[in-house]
Design goal:
The protein is an alpha+beta fold. Helices cover 35% and strands 35% of the residues. The chain has a 7-stranded mixed β-sheet, sandwiched between helices. β2 and β3 form a beta hairpin. α1 crosses α3. The longest helix has 16 residues. It is globular and about 45 Å long.
């Protein structure tokens, strides 16, 4: 089994769009209306939006490869790119998704460790993320990785307000 990470660039938009839509849809389609899912996917993962995000200096995307195939991705934000004002000493994990067929191979942990490595390299004292309060598997994973629930915020899936738990891990 070979696992590799590659930083994404503008040439990767098509692959990034495909994996973003696939993983988000697989994760949340059963708990949301088809209309809300369709609207969110079209807004969040259209090529122009992804190009804008890839062009943001304080944001980075990474693909994780499992035996040569793109299996998932990570998006981290620092400074003004963070989706909440958490300060200059924080790094946000905005997205961490693994395709269904590659789950349970340690790839989520691998990507999370990449985010921790980036935070350490950038002298960030805090790593945080938002996770839907109903995503029990992800919450359990983040707790196992040392994150604690510190706050919450609203996330809109179409016209439905949902609550994301803010989970934080403090670096030494």
């Amino acid at each position: 089994m070979t696992i590799k990470i590659k930083k994404c660039n503008r040439e990767d938009i098509e692959i990034l769009q495909e994996i973003s839509i696939e993983t988000f849809n697989d994760t949340f389609k059963n708990q949301n209306s088809p209309e809300n899912m369709k609207n969110y996917l079209e807004r969040a993962f259209n090529a122009q939006q992804l190009e804008k995000e890839l062009s943001t200096i304080s944001s980075e995307f990474f693909f994780v490869y499992f035996n040569g195939a793109v299996a998932g991705y990570l998006k981290v934000n620092t400074n003004e790119a963070q989706s909440e004002e958490m300060g200059d000493e924080s790094l946000e994990i905005e997205r961490i998704y693994i395709k269904k067929e590659y789950q349970k191979h340690g790839l989520g942990k691998y990507l999370l460790n990449k985010a921790i490595e980036i935070a350490t390299d950038c002298n960030k004292k805090k790593i945080w993320l938002g996770v839907w309060e109903r995503n029990e598997n992800a919450i359990a994973f983040y707790k196992k990785m040392g994150f604690v629930h510190t706050d919450s915020h609203a996330f809109y899936m179409g016209d439905e307000e949902q609550i994301d738990l803010i989970m934080t891990k403090t670096q030494k």
